[in-house]
Design a protein that fits this description.
alpha+beta, Alpha-Beta Plaits, 482 residues, binds zinc ion, four-stranded antiparallel sheet
Length: 482
């Protein structure tokens, strides 16, 4: 229904290639027939693109991360501009060469600070499955390729060059604008944890923190479809369940074999996981509709609109047939491990199950555990929590959302701006716990095929969408400082 509001943006995709030999500048082939001919990229954009490639060439595969050289690389760019910054080495307890980088462009203090966060580490990449070496920063047919392109070095460079541009323009700001690059998001979040433990005063007073998340989604012909913003994520609750029984030689079966207990519990947990009640968080109707891979109006129980339909159990059940949508609608349990005896002929003292549970933001962990105990109904069960943190969600009716909508609508009148939640975790929850309003939004346009390549092969970011993001974020920051 929003398609009628969409603008045809660009006739053809910009093609960018590098000059051979000593020429370091970009050769840009501007399509003569484009419906909206674009001006050539500004020197700032070209510089940002070159440094984006450079950033992608630095291998920060985690483990081990090795973010210190990238922190130094970003620091050098800030130093050159005279932007105040501090590099924090995390210390050997977090591994070798781990660091965070913090920079600040000061406003007059009449409004609360705005923080841009990104992580410098990336997940590993196997070059044999890539068309281009994953740490090459290669540009091909309008895309920059490299591990981290959309997760999330591209955002880091757009954030950084927004500070640089504002500084060069000597723009007066009301809010301090903070740039934060952290280590280790992909493994232990030790970079963000270090910041919160050791330097909370540098971020605590901020109003908004913008982390990785969703983007402006465009289709393959470059039409902007919608902007999606993460406002929360589910809480991970990882459990180890141990069961105890009478051990002995397996030639004599025992009724209270610990493995039998674990199996019976697993059966009950599986059955219960299908019955966990649905809960529709406020404001998520549009994101559920957009993320459902099909036409929701054809599902059983659909009534007039999403808000009404989401109150109908039959519709919810049909919608939740799609696993990702299901995970957005309820607490979930995945059984991920089982352990019994190491020896086939021995009944062990104990057996265990590993559960990866994910709770909707704002849920009560104790209530969930109590219900799980009731479901299992075995007095011998011992439940240990291996990982948990409380996850909150940030409201979608704030000055940030208002600015985002206002500025996006200058570019794309009527573009839907849609809040959503993430089923997995980022560093965002750690900062929500500090009292900040945290949003998952990367300021660029990304097509659907590109969006699925995060953590996958041939990760990339479109140059045109990246350039657009540099203008857009600059405008957004100015709007937030009015
Ligand atoms: Zn990421």
């Amino acid at each position: 229904m929003f398609k009628s509001q969409l603008l045809k943006l660009f006739g053809t995709r910009l093609s960018v290639s590098f000059c051979a030999g000593l020429c370091a500048s970009l050769c840009l082939n501007w399509p003569a027939s484009a419906l909206s001919p674009l001006p050539p990229p500004s020197p700032l954009k070209q510089e940002a693109l070159r440094n984006f490639q450079q950033y992608l060439r630095m291998d920060t595969s985690n483990p081990p991360g090795n973010e210190l050289p990238t922190a130094r690389f970003l620091k050098a760019l800030l130093d050159k501009e005279g932007i105040e910054n501090q590099l924090f080495e995390l210390g050997p307890e977090n591994g070798k060469n781990r660091a965070n980088l913090y920079a600040i462009l000061r406003g007059d203090g009449s409004r609360k600070p705005l923080v841009f966060l990104h992580h410098m580490d990336v997940v590993p990449a196997d070059p044999q499955f890539w068309a281009f070496p994953p740490f090459s920063g290669q540009i091909d047919k309008g895309f920059v390729y490299g591990r981290g392109a959309i997760d999330v070095k591209g955002k880091g460079i757009v954030d950084l060059y927004t500070l640089i541009r504002l500084k060069r323009e000597k723009q007066p700001l009301k809010r301090d604008l903070i740039f934060l690059a952290v280590a280790d998001e992909e493994v232990n979040s030790s970079g963000s944890r270090w910041m919160i433990q050791n330097k909370p005063e540098l971020i605590r007073g901020a109003e908004f923190l913008i982390d990785e998340g969703k983007t402006v989604t465009e289709n393959e012909t470059g039409q902007a479809l919608y902007a999606m913003v993460g406002i929360g994520e589910k809480s991970p609750l990882w459990l180890k369940l141990s069961f105890f029984g009478t051990p002995g030689h397996a030639s004599v079966p025992m009724a209270d074999n610990a493995v039998n207990r674990a199996l019976r519990a697993a059966q009950k947990i599986l059955a219960y996981s299908q019955e966990i009640p649905f809960e529709v968080l406020p404001g998520l109707a549009e994101s559920l509709r957009l993320q459902y891979p099909g036409d929701v109006t054809r599902l059983p129980g659909y009534q007039k609109d999403m808000t009404r339909s989401l109150k109908n159990p039959a519709f919810l059940k049909a919608l939740a047939e799609h696993p990702e949508i299901n995970a957005m609608l309820r607490n979930t349990i995945s059984i991920t491990g089982m352990r019994g005896s190491d020896k086939t002929n021995i009944i062990p003292n104990s057996a265990s199950l590993s559960l990866d549970c994910r709770l909707l933001p704002g849920q009560d962990k104790e209530r969930f555990l109590q219900k799980l105990r009731e479901v299992i109904g075995d007095k011998t069960v011992k439940i240990e929590i291996e990982e948990y943190y409380q996850s909150l969600y940030s409201p979608a009716d704030t000055a940030y959302f208002a600015s985002l909508e206002r500025v996006l609508h200058r570019h794309y009148p009527g573009l839907p701006v849609v809040p959503t939640i993430f089923t997995s975790s980022t560093d965002s929850s750690l900062y929500r716990a500090l009292g900040l309003k945290v949003y998952g939004f990367e300021a660029y346009r990304v097509d659907e095929a590109t969006a699925t390549r995060a953590h996958g092969n041939d990760e990339r970011l479109g140059v045109e969408g990246f350039f657009w993001g540099l203008d857009f974020l600059h405008e957004l920051v100015l709007d937030l400082n009015r």
